Amino acid sequence: MAGPGNALKVDESVLLNGARFVKENGEIKVTVVNFSDMQCPSCKAADIQTKELFDKPGVKIVMRLFPLPASLHRYALISAKAAEAARIMGKGFEMVAVLYDKQEEWSAVDKPEDNFAGYAKSLGLDEKIFREKLGSVEVAQNVQLDANLAASLQLPGTPTYFVNGEQVGAPFVVDKVKQLLGEK
């Protein structure tokens, strides 16, 4: 988490270039970019804290997939691919919500792909197409684009948030957004 005076500042166009998980509401005044790992417990907690921003007028929410190395989270990459496969099929943010909600469940099995396919089906997605997307080059490349961006920014881990291009610690994101919207 960046402290006062040493927060990383990044041109918003860099953070938004190639972004695929985007949700916006009305005329945008504040952009929140979150680099997240689906298997990261801290990311799950931060997602719960920032959920209220998802439908807030004037806010654009952007999620970038940043799977940490398998030595830290063995299913980080495949869970990022599950989120991306669902996004391509029109249910990206919904899959992210399910992945966080069921994080302990799929993290404890030997073959989480079966869990992910079941979650996709519960979201109304075709399970066969989802499995094809999950293993596709397109999905792998899309996840790698986000990971490459995180690496180029030398992000130390997840979750990492930027509000209007300035790095903000996860516990302070909601307050910062409210401040920028003139609500505090």
Automatic annotation (TrEMBL):
Annotated Gene3D superfamilies: Glutaredoxin
Coiled coil region boundaries: none
Domain Thioredoxin-like fold residues, every copy: 29-181
Molecular function in Gene Ontology: oxidoreductase activity
Keyword line: Disulfide bond, Oxidoreductase, Redox-active center, Signal
Domain of life per record: Bacteria
Pfam families the UniProt entry points to: Thioredoxin_4 (PF13462)
Keyword Oxidoreductase: yes
Membership in a protein family: Belongs to the thioredoxin family. DsbA subfamily.
The protein's name: DSBA oxidoreductase
